[in-house]
């Protein structure tokens, strides 16, 4: 049996159907929103992500941009996010496509490549400025330079040489014309007296000393150098050590040299003006010569390392020697003085003889 609908009921049925659909989608959309909102969103910020620059490297040389950017990754799939955070398992990369650009400076928009569809990426910065030049190559001699003439240890650097002496420089055509010299810069604070050479990075400098963008082959060279350690002359003086034997009153110590040269860091040797040389006199029996090491009381070297010392003793006088000297002095005094009466008589006789002689001489002159 057929059911006939009146035409007058059709609009009401259509309106009912529309409201039913609205109600259906409204309820399901709320459930879907609850489902989405219930899932956590994870975020990670990756630093120093390298930029993969796409260009014709045989024809062009590009420069003028930072080679790394930061990337913020977000997504609900924690496992996928962790895979991209780890460099060893990372699939995505940041790309700067220059393949359709010619020589000059351009603003290039950065994009991600091979990023999982469940993750979103924000690149900072979003664009980079890139300079494109025609590639050229040329060979240059390398000159070694120092960041300063002395380092923190006070070492002075002498003559330097580079191995290899020449390198091949690759750069842009315009940049090549700006190169004034190619150098290998050495950080003097890293040098020690035990070294003979150090690895240094090759740089190309303009006339104003500005580092220019280049590729060097080889990128590093060996800089050989001589260390010139600061030195000064100091005086030497003897220091008596040990107790003198009982028979010796004092000693005289003579060193065969009065000067020595010390070498070391400037801050170490500056306060030193003299060095005392210890001489042991405890076993002294007579004049001796000794070879003595010059003492070092700090981080420096001394030349020569030894000095000769002659030690001459002054012996004490014994009691027997003193008594004998006293007796001998008394005996000498007695012999000289003798008998006082005999001396007086002798003096009177001599005076009488002188007077008689004078009288005889006077008489003769009168006659």
Give a short synopsis of this structure.
The chain is α+β, with helices and mostly antiparallel strands and 367 residues long. 25% of the residues lie in helices and 44% in strands. The chain folds into 3 domains: 42-125, RNA Polymerase Alpha Subunit, Chain A, domain 2 (Beta Complex), CATH 2.170.120.30; 135-228, YbbR-like domain (RNA Polymerase Alpha Subunit, Chain A, domain 2, Beta Complex); 231-315, YbbR-like domain (RNA Polymerase Alpha Subunit, Chain A, domain 2, Beta Complex), CATH 2.170.120.40.
How is this structure best described in words?
The structure is a single chain. The chain has 3 domains: 42-125, RNA Polymerase Alpha Subunit, Chain A, domain 2, CATH 2.170.120.30; 135-228, RNA Polymerase Alpha Subunit, Chain A, domain 2 (Beta Complex), CATH 2.170.120; 231-315, YbbR-like domain (RNA Polymerase Alpha Subunit, Chain A, domain 2, Beta Complex). The protein has 6 helices and 22 strands. It has helices spanning 10-38, 78-85, 173-178, 266-269, 319-337, 340-366; strands at residues 42-54, 60-63, 68-75, 93-97, 104-109, 111-113, 119-124, 127-146, 156-163, 166-172, 181-186, 197-205, 211-212, 215-217, 220-228, 231-241, 248-255, 259-264, 274-280, 288-293, 300-303, 306-315. Strands 2, 5, 8, 9, 10, 11, 12, 13, 14 and 15 form a 10-stranded mixed β-sheet that branches. A 5-stranded mixed β-sheet has the order 6-4-1-3-7. The protein is elongated and about 155 Å long. Residues 32-38 and 320-367 have low confidence and may be disordered.
């Amino acid at each position: 049996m057929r059911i006939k609908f009146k035409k007058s009921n059709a609009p009401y049925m259509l309106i009912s159907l529309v409201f039913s659909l609205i109600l259906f989608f409204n309820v399901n959309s709320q459930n879907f929103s609850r489902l989405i909102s219930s899932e956590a969103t994870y975020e990670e910020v990756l630093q120093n992500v390298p930029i993969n620059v796409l260009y014709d490297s045989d024809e062009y040389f590009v420069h003028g941009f930072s080679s790394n950017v930061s990337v913020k990754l977000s997504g609900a799939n924690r496992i996928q996010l962790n895979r991209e955070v780890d460099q060893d398992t990372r699939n995505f990369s940041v790309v700067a496509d220059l393949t359709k650009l010619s020589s000059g400076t351009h603003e290039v928009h950065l994009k991600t490549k091979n990023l999982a569809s469940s993750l979103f990426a924000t690149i900072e910065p979003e664009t980079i400025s890139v300079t494109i030049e025609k590639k050229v190559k040329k060979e240059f001699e390398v000159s070694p330079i120092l960041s300063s003439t002395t380092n923190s240890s006070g070492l002075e650097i002498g003559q330097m040489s580079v191995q290899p002496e020449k390198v091949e420089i690759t750069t842009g055509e315009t940049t090549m014309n700006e190169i004034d010299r190619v150098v290998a810069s050495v950080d003097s604070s890293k040098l020690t007296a035990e070294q003979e050479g150090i690895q240094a990075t090759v740089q190309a400098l303009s006339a104003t000393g500005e580092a220019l963008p280049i590729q060097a082959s080889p990128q590093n060279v060996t800089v050989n150098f001589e260390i010139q350690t600061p030195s000064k002359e100091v005086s030497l003086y003897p220091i008596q050590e040990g107790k003198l034997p009982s028979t010796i009153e004092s000693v005289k110590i003579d060193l065969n040299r009065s000067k020595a040269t010390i070498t070391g860091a400037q801050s170490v040797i500056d306060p030193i003006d003299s060095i005392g040389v210890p001489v042991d006199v405890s076993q002294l029996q007579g004049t001796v010569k000794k070879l003595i090491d010059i003492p070092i009381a700090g981080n420096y070297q001394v030349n020569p390392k030894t000095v000769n010392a002659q030690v001459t003793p002054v012996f004490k006088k014994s009691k027997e020697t003193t008594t004998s000297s006293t007796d001998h002095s008394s005996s000498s005094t007695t012999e000289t003085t003798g008998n006082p009466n005999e001396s007086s008589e002798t003096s009177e006789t001599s005076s009488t003889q002188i007077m008689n002689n004078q009288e005889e001489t006077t008489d003769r002159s009168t006659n």
